[in-house]
């Protein structure tokens, strides 16, 4: 043990070590949270990239798929506006 630890009160040394341990645990917790959010972002990016590839493939194919694609896009837009209308009504 170092000389400075023998010269100080054992309770004070324990308190210093406890504070340092808590600081390091908080630092580790923040790093883990950051890594989890990075992982979530990476998986979401992969999902969006795959969706865009399928969307592009469908858009480049024949005329029937274009009609289906336009219908789906229109349906999603209408569903978005209906959902936003109901959510705004629920808040008031």
How do the strands and helices of this protein lay out in sequence?
Blueprint: H1 3-7, H2 10-60, H3 63-91
Separation of the first and last Cα atoms: 67 Å
Low-confidence stretches: none
> Globular, elongated, flat, extended or rod-shaped: what is the shape?
elongated
Mean pLDDT, nearest integer?
80
The count of strands amounts to 0
Overall helicity: over 70%
How many helices? The count is 3
Largest sheet: none
Question: Which structural class should the secondary elements be placed in?
Answer: mainly alpha
Order of helices and strands: HHH
Radius of gyration: 28 Å
Strand residue content: under 5%
Model description:
This protein has 92 residues and is mostly helical. The protein has three helices and no strands. The chain has helices at 3-7, 10-60, 63-91. The chain is elongated and about 85 Å long. It starts with a helix and ends with a helix. The model has no long low-confidence stretch (mean pLDDT 80). The chain crosses the membrane at residues 68-87. This is Bet1 golgi vesicular membrane trafficking protein like. Its main location: membrane. It is a single-pass membrane protein. Keywords: Membrane, Transmembrane, Transmembrane helix, Transport.
Give the structure's gist in a few sentences:
This protein is an all-alpha fold. It has helices at residues 3-7, 10-60, 63-91.
Search tags:
transport, transmembrane helix, transmembrane, membrane, 3 helices, 92 residues, Bet1 golgi vesicular membrane trafficking protein like, mainly alpha
């Amino acid at each position: 043990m170092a000389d400075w630890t023998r010269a100080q009160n054992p309770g004070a040394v324990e308190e210093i070590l406890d504070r340092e341990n808590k600081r390091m645990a908080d630092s580790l917790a923040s790093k883990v949270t950051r890594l989890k959010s990075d992982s979530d972002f990476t998986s979401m990016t992969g999902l969006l990239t795959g969706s865009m590839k399928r969307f592009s493939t469908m858009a480049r194919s024949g005329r029937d798929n274009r009609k289906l694609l336009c219908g789906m896009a229109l349906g999603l837009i209408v569903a978005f506006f209906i959902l936003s209308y109901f959510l705004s009504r629920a808040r008031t």
